[in-house]
Design a protein that fits this description.
binds iron/sulfur cluster, mainly alpha, Endonuclease Iii, domain 2
Length: 252
């Protein structure tokens, strides 16, 4: 991995290399098509991945795991199909809205959407109801392959506990930090984010920090006593995106 010069760059490069050695390639996103990624990214908000899989299965069986059929489907039918994922009225509306939008504004072509580049494509996605920054970035990265880092809660937790960002850093500032210190490489962002999520799930949990077992412990700059104090600190909430790893992790 090449990166921009500077200490944060070196830290991030070491994190990436170390986690890749530990866990191996993560193979994200767990989907066969770009529309499946998009639907999964929307459906996984505020639920676990197993429920998302049920909803995706229903959409697939109904032939609606694709842009054009989704855009022309009845809202009531989509609601019924995605009900297992919870918040089904809102999610069904968002699924149909994005499908209609891509058909109307981008001639039904995801290639045309992603060809706009990260910033313009992101602005368009964020204009849709039900799509926030994390969901938009997951779509851009995992469906579009664009160099957009998903700076979710798991990512922020690890970076903040290593002093790279502030403990209360919000999504946008963490994302800005990562973009500032990493070269724009969608493949690296994909793998790095997935690896950080795995490290957070296994070792760097919200209320339980297992530095003794974690491969990133060698990069802690504070004494172990201080790292233990982190156990008492309240961490950030898991991300909506990261619930996807529950199934990925169980496959590995
Ligand atoms: S568990 Fe400890 S070493 Fe591992 S990422 Fe968290 S703070 Fe760092």
């Amino acid at each position: 991995m090449q990166a921009k010069p500077g200490q944060p760059r070196q830290d991030l490069e070491r994190f990436f290399t170390t986690l890749l050695e530990k866990f191996g390639p993560q193979g994200w996103w767990p989907a066969e098509t770009r529309w499946e990624v998009i639907c999964g990214a929307i459906l996984t908000q505020n639920t676990n991945w197993r429920n998302v899989l049920l909803a995706l299965h229903n959409l697939r069986q109904a032939g609606l795991l694709d842009g054009s059929p989704l855009a022309h489907a009845a809202l009531a039918e989509i609601q019924t199909l995605v009900r297992p994922a919870g918040f089904y009225r809102q999610k069904a509306r968002t699924l149909r809205d994005i499908a209609v939008w891509i058909e109307a504004a981008h001639a039904g072509s995801l290639d045309r959407l992603f060809a706009l580049g990260p910033e313009r494509a992101r602005a368009g996605l964020l204009s849709l109801r039900g799509i926030g920054p994390e969901t938009a970035d997951a779509i851009l990265l995992y469906a579009g392959g664009l160099p957009v880092f998903v700076a979710d809660a798991y990512t922020r937790r690890i970076l903040s506990r290593h002093g790279l960002i502030a403990g209360d850093a919000d999504y946008d500032s963490a994302r800005q930090f990562l973009h500032q210190h990493l070269p724009p490489d969608g493949a690296v962002y994909n793998e790095f984010h997935a690896l950080l999520v795995e490290a957070a799930k296994q070792f760097c949990r919200r209320n339980e920090i297992r530095c003794e077992e974690c491969p990133l412990a060698r990069f802690l700059t504070m004494p172990k006593a201080d790292s233990r104090q982190l156990r008492a600190k309240k961490g950030s909430r898991p991300s909506v995106i990261s619930s996807a790893t529950e199934v990925v992790g169980s496959r590995n």
